[in-house]
Amino acid sequence: MTTQQAPATRSAYPVYSRNIVQRLLVNRESAVIALLVIVYVYSLVNVEFFDGPLTTYNLFKEYAPILLMALPMTLIIITGEIDLSVSSTLGVCAAACGVMVKDHGLSMPTAIVLTLLLGIVLGAVNGFLVAYVGLPSLAVTIGTLALYRGLAEGLIQTDRIAEFPASWQDWPTERIGDTNIPNIMVPVVVLAVVFGLLLHFTSFGRGIYEIGLSSETAHFSGVNVARTKFLLFIMSGFVAALAGIYVLLRSDSVATDTGVGFELKVIASVLLGGVSIFGGRGALHGVIAGVLLIAVLNSALQLSNQGSEIIQIIIGLLLVVSVIASSFLPRVRELLPRRAMASGPSKAPNSGDESRKARQ
Question: CATH class for domain 28-44+54-326?
Answer without folding.
Answer: mainly alpha
